[in-house]
Input
Amino acid sequence: MTTDRTDHSPSLDAHWMPFTANRQFKQAPRLLARAEGMHYWTPEGRQVLDGVAGLWCVNAGHARPRIVQAIAQQASVLDYAPPFQMGHPQAFELAEELVKLTPPGLDRVFFTNSGSESVETALKMALAYHRVRGEGSRTRLIGRERGYHGVNFGGISVGGIVGNRKLFGTLLTGVDHLRHTHDPARNAYSFGQPAHGAELADDLERLCALHDPSTIAAVIVEPVAGSTGVLLPPVGYLQRLREICDRHGILLIFDEVITGFGRTGQPFGAQTFGVTPDLMTVAKGLTNGCVPMGAVFARRSIHDAFMHGPEQLIEFPHGYTYSAHPLACAAALATLQTYEEEQLLTRAGELHDYFGQALHSLKGLPHVVDVRNIGLVGGVELAPLPDAPAKRAFNVFLDCWEQGVLIRTTGDTIALSPPLIIEKSHIDRIVDVLSGALRRAA
Output
């Protein structure tokens, strides 16, 4: 297409947009020009309430002065430092601050630049860990149906969302998947964790019997599966996975890219659900979305398994040019300070009941078939239009946008994950606009 540029707006042609219906978007662009607190503004000056924290990441709200100033200050002092064979003080300071928040035992931090890179790193750590311990037969990775673990080849291989996999060939070999935990027949409209389904974790025993547990390196799951439509773990499910992994010497990886940094009411989902993994991936809320950054938290025993041999040799040949980037470290440190000062990492727990009750008030509206919630994350599942999957939810998304509220859709589920600074009046506004859009979608 050729865009009319008489209004000095940029041409839309060259940018191939990620995870976007490009043709639809470029016919009616949805542009954001400014953000502050709980809101975005369009180039025309229209205010839009952010119901999704940008993309699950702006947990402390937009344009927080402490974070903005930290990035600017760092850029003026040390804009870049090589992370291979060199270091800078902020990287070590940030790692020390982070392990104060993690479950006990997860006290080693490897920095990446995104959730996708964090997943790739954790998978490589798991494979290499078994090899350096003399169990090189453990090469198999287990994901879960309807899981999302980023977009690199390892992540989409262990991931279980068909639309993210089908275009890219056979992916990694030696990967299998647990059954998903979505069970609307027993758990529809659960408030918080569903009561039924802990036994679904026993599917791991089936895979162990099929492949032999001595060939399995790691199991990776999201404590709450976000991108597939906000699927919560049944009560006892994660505990049972932990027990089975321990029984067979398999590492358990939690992908907390979405659930990390206060989304479920505790700093991490591992603490909310009372289960500590061996490796944990994070990103998004680590820097409040301001500068790309991710990390992997590892048990000390995993880290120490690599610390053998000649000291001048690289123990783990992996990393990124921008690992522990100075600007990202500055943003993350300022973000953690903001979280602490405003007690944001537990605020979702305080608002859990109010947010959940507001969402569940949508039960009974046209085409609503389920509502799911925990902390400040919620999913409203809609019955799909015949022969048009995802269209009904997308229509609701467009309607809410026109009404000044930004929501997110995944398939036919509406996902909400507002900034942790949200007030009850904002929750009321989001649900009111969503309710109207659902009625009009009928």
Notes: The mean pLDDT is 96. The longest strand covers residues 106-112.
